[in-house]
Design a protein that fits this description.
Blueprint: H1 2-42, E1 53-54, E2 58-59, H2 61-73, H3 81-84, E3 89-91, E4 101-104, E5 113-119, E6 122-125, E7 134-137, H4 141-146, E8 147-152
Antiparallel strand pairs: 1-2, 3-8, 4-5, 4-8, 5-6, 6-7
Helix pairs in contact: 1-2
């Protein structure tokens, strides 16, 4: 009887230890996501530049996403929306969370555009030539029609 009680205590202790680590990981991820989205929003107004990946000279969509993830989360992503779409895990639109990447077909090519989800059906991106980094409403007809999907990048291991 004593052995069973001791074994139960040890197992319960092991389970609670495992549970204790999950919130720490979640809170670490949440802190990184907050840093990531705050930094992305600090770049609102930065000019669009094809092939660009710098706040000083400008961004294209994938250069913007890559720069933000590299600076704020120490995550390296390739240049190119289609290449970025191969990273992370797929996310259903109903399960989007801040910091997820959202993809669009903006020139008759799947995964030709990428932005960062901010929550409340909004995302931030570097839109197109002559534009600048800005926030968009995903419920707008244009964005609904061209939506390709979303990915969640692993943060804060």
């Amino acid at each position: 009887m004593r052995c069973i009680l001791l074994l139960s205590v040890l197992l319960l202790g092991a389970c609670s230890t495992t549970k204790d680590h999950a919130p720490a990981h979640d809170s670490n991820r949440a802190a990184i996501v907050k840093k990531l989205t705050a930094y992305a929003q600090s770049l609102i107004g930065a000019p669009y530049k094809y092939g660009g990946s710098s706040p000083r000279t400008g961004f294209d969509c994938s250069g913007f996403v890559g720069h933000v993830f590299g600076y704020a989360a120490d995550v390296s992503l390739p240049h190119g929306a289609e290449q970025i779409s191969r990273h992370g895990l797929p996310v259903k639109s109903s399960q989007l969370r801040e910091g997820d990447l959202v993809f669009y077909d903006t020139n008759n090519q799947a995964y030709s555009h990428v932005g960062i989800y901010l929550g409340n059906d909004r995302f931030i991106h570097a839109p197109s030539n002559g534009g600048s980094v800005r926030v968009e409403d995903m419920k707008m007809d244009y964005w609904k029609k061209h939506y390709n999907g979303a990915r969640r990048i692993t943060l804060g291991r």
